Amino acid sequence: MDQFYVIGAQQKNGVFNDWEQYEKGLILKVSPKQNTAKTCVKYVSPPEVLPNTNPSISFTAGTMEQNLLYVGTNTEILVFRLPDFQRMGYVTLPCFNDIHHVRPTKSGNFLIVNTGLDMVLEVSPKAEIKKEWSVTGMEPWEKFSRAIDYRKIATTKPHHSHPNFVFQLGEDVWATRCLQKDAICLTKPGKKIDIGGDLIHDGVVFGNFLYFTQVTGKVVMVDRQTLKVSKILDLNKLTPSGKHLGWCRGIKVLDDESVIVGFTRIRPSKKLQADGTMKWEGQYGTMPTRIACYNLRLEKLLWEQELEEYGMNAIYSIHSATPGEQR
């Protein structure tokens, strides 16, 4: 397995609010052994599903099953056939705001993390809402209104929980809550995985463990039977750079020992000030947007590949590009 699909976005030329930062969704096919990448998809959402002023457009965390790739934008769900990336499905609904992750169910529906409304939805390919779960403890529509088209709302921040990933253990549906630094079971309320520490992303099931990332550069392994943290690996200690690693989000588990993780930075850029002068803003002293492979048993960095030269400035998820493999 030596090629991977990396899902993310290209940044605008300038420094914007975090809900205005990106100009297009991007999917790359990356070949680390050759240190090359090629663009598979560039995508710009249609105006009718975007805010009218400074919309942000990106692909967010997806799921690959069989020969299909399920991926979201801030306000849409798209299904691509692999490897030709022909679009096979499309769903958008007025309640979609800041979508962070999508995965298919066994019945063919979509589980969608609707981050802007602090919800997880189950939606059919015909855009019928089958189930709605709030991750806040409130009723799903207690804080929000069904009469509003949230696709046209730039941001609903501050969020109460900021869910960002959905996964299944058996038949049960779970969601990560970034701000609470945990994962909760939506189908059996009261069950919870306490992770703590830093803000979390992901929730990838592989073998006996769940793998989470923390934005400060840590991988957390949770025993799927006990639902307790088994190991925390600090990637900062394994990366001999002396710089900030970037925003750690997106993980592909290769085997019981090795993982690939994604790191995102906001590249420095000039911004015009009110007095007419230019000011540099953005993240200095931070390593470029890239993927990196670590051996968790040896606690060793194996390789890295930078992706900014291919136009990718944000990473949300990583998937095998080898036929027959999934994530």
Q: How would you portray this structure in words?
A:
The chain has 327 residues and is mainly beta. It has a single domain (4-320), classed as YVTN repeat-like/Quinoprotein amine dehydrogenase (Methylamine Dehydrogenase, Chain H, 7 Propeller). The protein contains no helices and 26 strands. The protein has strands spanning 4-11, 22-31, 36-43, 63-65, 68-72, 77-81, 86-91, 99-104, 110-114, 119-123, 129-134, 163-169, 172-177, 182-185, 192-194, 200-206, 209-214, 218-223, 229-234, 247-253, 258-264, 269-272, 278-281, 290-295, 300-306, 314-320. A four-stranded antiparallel sheet has the order 3-2-1-26, with no helix packed on it. It has a four-stranded antiparallel sheet with strand order 4-5-6-7, with no helix packed on it. Strand 13 and strand 14 form a beta hairpin. It is globular. The two termini are 13 Å apart. The mean pLDDT is 92.
Give the helix/strand layout.
Layout: E1 4-11, E2 22-31, E3 36-43, E4 63-65, E5 68-72, E6 77-81, E7 86-91, E8 99-104, E9 110-114, E10 119-123, E11 129-134, E12 163-169, E13 172-177, E14 182-185, E15 192-194, E16 200-206, E17 209-214, E18 218-223, E19 229-234, E20 247-253, E21 258-264, E22 269-272, E23 278-281, E24 290-295, E25 300-306, E26 314-320
Antiparallel strand pairs: 1-2, 1-26, 2-3, 4-5, 5-6, 6-7, 8-9, 9-10, 10-11, 12-13, 13-14, 14-15, 16-17, 17-18, 18-19, 20-21, 21-24, 22-23, 24-25
First-last Cα distance: 13 Å
**Major beta sheet, strand line-up:** 3-2-1-26
Largest sheet: 4 strands, antiparallel
- List the domain count as a whole number: 1
